[in-house]
Amino acid sequence: MSKATRIAILAVLAIATYVSFSSIYTVSEVEQMIITQFGKPVGAPVTTAGLKVKLPFIQDVNPIDKRVLEWDGSPSDMPTKDKLYISVDLFARWRITDPLQYFLRLRDERSAQSRLDDILGSETRNAVAKHELIEIIRTTKGRSPLRDALLVDIESDVGALVPIRKGRKLVEQEIFKAAAEKVRVFGIQLLDIRFKRINYNESVRPKIYDRMISERRQIAERFLSEGNGEAARIRGNRERDLNKIQSEAYREVEEIRGMADAKATEIYARAYNQGPEAVAFYEFTRTMQAYEALIADNTTLVLSTESDLFKFLKGMSPDGDLAPAQVPPTVDDNAPNAAASVRPTERSDAGFSVDDQRGHRR
Asked: Which candidate, 64, 13, 76, places its Cα nearest to that of 35?
């Protein structure tokens, strides 16, 4: 065999090997293939794994992922029904169910991700705009607020919760149903969609915090007002009870004092009614006590000569000794009932002197 023949055989074998490798391809378990000829799909999509054959040179193999794929949107700001701007971060799971339609409309995964950004972002914005913030954040409808034990018996709306009609899960289902219909035309099946994070917008967050602080202050002022009212009521009850106790105590004291005076009067009556001498002595001592209570320094008394108070004074001499009982006081005949003036003088044994209206001292 000549050298040229040998070279020709080797060339044929090389070409055959190259053609064989160009016409054979493998399909893995996580892929599906679209065969294109001059850029256009030909035949049905290859979805089964194994070793496959195609026309060399003129046909190309386009792999398409068969696994569940992830879509993770970027946070975007949007308003709620109650005019609160929030930042919503969403994620979803999807897969390719119609590879031919997917290849014709989108070609690759990068285009699919971009289209999902538009569709899911738009549907999320529409759903958020139709619901209040509490509906998007909370899920539990029959929740009850935690309240302090001291406030359980108080009828108040403090701590009352806004009622939830739908909740976050139903809002997610609304977004899912609306978006699933739109992505189906691209050969994509939307499997699930969830809110990852919901937060206040940075520009309105200080205002939200200020409003929360204001609400807490209003509640605190309300508690303070109710506390002041309760304190005033307690103080009023205290004053009323104190006045009642004082009144009852005063009444009881007066009753005891009256009983004591009655008892003392009874004892005095028994002591001084034992004979005429006892009666006269009692009259004298009581009159002396009256003198002590009535007469002080620089006191002037105008008494009738027939007064009971003057009875013992008119029987005293200027030296403080008792005058003879039969000597009556000197009184003007024209004024039998003339008054006498009694005033204190320099202190003597009697401590006072008696002047009648004619200026005579006794």
From this structure: 64
